Amino acid sequence: MKSIIITGATSGIGYECAIQIAKLAINEQIILACRNLKTGNQTIETIKHKTGHKNIICLPLDLESLESVREFKNHFEKTNTKISTLINNAGLQNVDKTKYTKDGFEQTFGVNHLAPFYLTLLLMPYLAEDAGITFTASGTHDPDQKSGMPAPEFKDAKLLAYPSKTDEKQIKVGQRRYSTSKLCNILTTYELQRRLANTKIRVNAFDPGLVPGTGLAKNYPPVLKFISDYVFKAFILFVPNVNTAHHSGKRLANLAYNDKYKSAKGKYFEGEKEIKSSTDSYNIEFQKKLWESSIELLNVKQSETSISLT
User: Which residues contact 51 (CB under 8 A, 6 or more apart)?
Assistant: First the structure.
């Protein structure tokens, strides 16, 4: 038996993705990686009821803790299965005062990039030979898309993990940290795929578009949160790449699992459409620098993964 792992599956895009996966992968075990096991188990019962899928479990994972990432790997190892699909979907956007993970990394960068990167490295030995890895990114990483978010600024993982103080408005700082973390997801996608070039494993990045009401804007100021959660919903009817969670979640599941995308390797998708990502995302020096500096921050040992770290 094989397993499918989905992070951030108890709400929003991840939840809708899990439902679609349960419909597609009837003979595989589905693992929801959840910070809150109670919520995770409630989600499992709902998905089982809606889809009839019998083999869904929840394993604890807190992306603000590297120890939790390691423990997740240990829990997964006991399932004695191979991974057919890994969907790194969980993420956050903090536009309030700077927060840090349990390991001392800036929260947005730690949760959106470092933890899923570490999780992927630790799970490499358990991937099936033709496994798929998908990172949920965002069109906000590309200034040319004019999303209204500040353009990302990538220099080095260490500078993102331990940011300097700034006099900029918190909301702008938080939004830039988010767009930069999404750029990191795509840089990781391209670098990881290059390192897996001689394998059948595929790595892709996914832009769900603007998805109002998913909770991503939960710590925005009240007026902006209201606009994000409710006003933007009207845009779904007439603005391109503004989607419901159901629509984007289904597209994510299809990209990650459907046979239609089995030949896609090292690509960036806006929904179901393969498009070009930002100019910076193709910068090979950025890709290598992010990889190397992330490895240093995480202090990953070669014995922990099956892919070359150098």
Answer: 19, 22, 23
Partnered with residue 4 across adjacent β-strands are: 30, 85
Q: Is residue 123 part of a domain?
A: yes
- Tell me how far apart the alpha carbons of residues 228 and 243 are, in angstroms, rounded to a whole number: 12
Write the pLDDT tens digit of every residue in 166-193: 889 998 999 999 999 999 999 999 999 9
Give the helix/strand (H/E) hosting 293. Answer: helix 284-298
Q: Backbone dihedral region of 242: left (phi > 0), alpha (psi from -120 to 50 degrees) or beta?
A: beta
Domain, as residue range, for 259: 2-304
The CATH number of the domain where 260 resides is what?
A: 3.40.50.720
Tell me whether residue 60 is in a domain: yes
Tokens of 92: 């956050």
Domain count, the chain: 1
Across the chain, which distance is largest between two alpha carbons, in Å? 53
Backbone angles phi, psi at 46, to 5 degrees: -65, -45
DSSP state of 106: B
- Cα-to-chain-centroid distance, residue 60: 17
Global pTM value? 0.94
- Give the chain's end-to-end CA distance (angstroms, integer): 32
Please report whether residue 114 resides in a domain: yes
For the record, the structure tokens of 87 come out as 């969907």
Per-residue burial over 211-228, b = 16 or more CB atoms within 10 Å of its CB, e = otherwise: bbebebbebbeeeeeeeb
pLDDT tens column, 58-100: 999 999 999 999 999 999 999 999 999 999 999 999 988 999 9
Domain contains 225: yes
